[in-house]
């Protein structure tokens, strides 16, 4: 696998890298359960030391993908490599991975120290060696004083830290995390998100993380893979996923999005022109395809609610529409307007500090640099 990472590459997958750069690679992997296709022709590489999150709705195949890396499931077809070695049919014990589950899976009859050191004991290390390593891990997870406690004496957040320490003490080059924060309350969950991200950065271990929580994925990840119906819809940095979605599913799943259906007319002055169903010409900059190949074809313009202006500011925008306010919703962070424009309902998010809002008719607008064009099919 010759070559190096091209400028701007998020660390995965389009080209080939030297084998030592790659922690995990899937080559056209499919997993079926009877007639159900859980993972469909997945190909991807994860570079060493990256935090990759698989994000998607329930049943999209993300957990099955994680379990195939760990050897808990065997692919129906395709090949899986870890650190350059094929492991498609290898046992769990022969893979250089460890998994952290949502339910912690701690031994209830063992102390914290015994739980964390269990893997080292199975490897035959001396008691003094195990104790030293366990105390190192407890310092790493900021819980140095719980060495002799039992799991039932710990909070949920503490139990999850112990489960994480038990996995990390074995120094796996790849750590698999299956919704590990899903059972925690919101405040503890947010705290552990930051701790996990910092821990991964400090240790340089490759993290493969599964969640259905969009905000969690955006906060923690170097790279996000959006999965839908067993397929990888898009792979990229959080910014790429949010600002330049490649499919309508990605745009709608990650955050809120407004969609305008239309036809690509071509380009003018560096802007793509789309004619919507009402005959309006809307202009946009962002795209990841050859515009000339799409002229005359159907496409969707996606615009985020926070990128839409109202009133006097909207009047200065390149793209302008007028509609009727149907709802005003106070969410704490923003005021959300639902604006009806002919047969479309547009969501507009306004800063909470805006004191006066129109009572009925409203002009909205946005400039070409904040939309994304998504080709049909």
Query: Gyration radius, to the nearest Å?
Result: 24 Å
N-to-C span: 32 Å
CATH superfamily of the largest domain: P-loop containing nucleotide triphosphate hydrolases
What topology, given as strand order, has the largest sheet? 6-7-8-3-9-10
Content of β-strand: 35-45%
Total helical elements: 10
**What's the number of structural domains?**
2
Question: Average pLDDT across residues?
Answer: 88
Largest sheet: 6 strands, mixed
Shape: elongated
> Which fold name corresponds to the CATH topology of the largest domain?
Rossmann fold
Q: What is this structure's SSE topology?
A:
Blueprint: E1 22-33, E2 36-47, E3 51-55, H1 62-70, E4 77-82, E5 85-86, E6 97-100, H2 112-116, H3 118-122, H4 127-140, H5 156-168, E7 174-178, H6 186-203, E8 206-211, H7 214-220, E9 223-228, E10 231-236, H8 238-243, H9 248-253, E11 258-268, E12 271-276, E13 281-284, E14 298-303, E15 309-310, H10 311-315, E16 319-330, E17 334-341, E18 344-351, E19 361-366, E20 371-375
Parallel strand pairs: 3-8, 3-9, 6-7, 7-8
Antiparallel strand pairs: 1-2, 1-4, 4-5, 9-10, 11-12, 11-14, 12-13, 14-20, 15-19, 16-17, 16-19, 17-18
3D architecture notes:
- This protein is an alpha+beta fold.
- The protein folds into 2 domains: 19-96 and 172-248, P-loop containing nucleotide triphosphate hydrolases (Rossmann fold); 256-310 and 319-375, Beta Barrel (OB fold (Dihydrolipoamide Acetyltransferase, E2P)), CATH 2.40.50.
- 23% of the residues lie in helices and 35% in strands.
- The chain is built from 10 helices and 20 strands.
- It has helices spanning 62-70, 112-116, 118-122, 127-140, 156-168, 186-203, 214-220, 238-243, 248-253, 311-315, and strands at residues 22-33, 36-47, 51-55, 77-82, 85-86, 97-100, 174-178, 206-211, 223-228, 231-236, 258-268, 271-276, 281-284, 298-303, 309-310, 319-330, 334-341, 344-351, 361-366, 371-375.
- The strands form 4 sheets. It has a 6-stranded mixed β-sheet with strand order 6-7-8-3-9-10, with helices on both faces. A 5-stranded antiparallel β-sheet has the order 13-12-11-14-20.
- A hairpin with a 4-residue loop joins strand 12 and strand 13.
- Helix 4 (127-140) crosses helix 5 (156-168).
- The radius of gyration is 24 Å and the shape is elongated.
- The two termini are 32 Å apart.
């Amino acid at each position: 696998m010759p070559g190096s990472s091209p400028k701007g590459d998020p660390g995965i997958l389009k080209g080939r890298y030297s084998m030592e750069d790659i922690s995990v690679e899937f080559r056209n992997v499919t997993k079926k359960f009877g007639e159900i296709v859980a993972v469909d022709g997945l190909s991807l590489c994860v570079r060493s030391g990256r935090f990759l999150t698989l994000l998607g709705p329930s049943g999209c195949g993300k957990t099955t993908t994680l379990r195939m890396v760990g050897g808990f499931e065997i692919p129906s077809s395709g090949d899986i490599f870890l650190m350059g070695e094929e492991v498609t049919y290898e046992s769990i014990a022969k893979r250089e991975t460890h998994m952290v589950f949502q339910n912690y899976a701690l031994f209830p009859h063992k102390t914290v120290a015994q739980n964390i050191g269990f893997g080292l004991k199975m490897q035959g290390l001396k008691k003094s060696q195990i104790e030293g390593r366990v105390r190192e891990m407890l310092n790493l997870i900021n819980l140095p004083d719980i060495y002799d406690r039992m799991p039932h004496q710990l909070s949920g957040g503490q139990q999850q830290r112990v489960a994480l320490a038990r996995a990390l003490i074995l120094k796996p080059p790849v750590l698999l995390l299956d919704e590990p924060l899903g059972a925690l309350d919101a405040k503890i969950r947010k705290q552990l998100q930051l701790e996990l991200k910092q821990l991964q950065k400090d240790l340089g271990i490759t993290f493969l993380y599964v969640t259905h929580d969009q905000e969690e994925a955006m906060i923690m990840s170097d790279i996000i893979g959006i999965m839908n119906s067993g397929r990888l819809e898009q792979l990229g940095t959080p910014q790429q996923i949010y600002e330049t979605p490649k499919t309508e599913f990605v745009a709608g799943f990650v955050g809120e999005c407004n969609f305008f259906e239309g036809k690509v007319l071509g380009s003018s002055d560096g802007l793509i022109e789309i004619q919507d169903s009402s005959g309006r010409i809307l202009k946009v900059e962002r795209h990841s395809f050859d515009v000339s190949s799409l002229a005359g074809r159907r496409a969707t313009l996606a615009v985020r609610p926070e990128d839409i202006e109202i009133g006097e500011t909207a009047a200065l925008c390149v793209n302008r529409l007028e509609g009727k306010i149907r709802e005003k919703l106070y969410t704490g962070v923003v005021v959300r307007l639902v604006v009806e424009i002919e047969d479309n309902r547009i969501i507009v998010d306004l800063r909470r500090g805006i004191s006066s809002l129109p009572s009925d008719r409203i002009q909205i607008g946005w400039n070409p640099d904040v939309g994304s064009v998504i080709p049909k099919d």
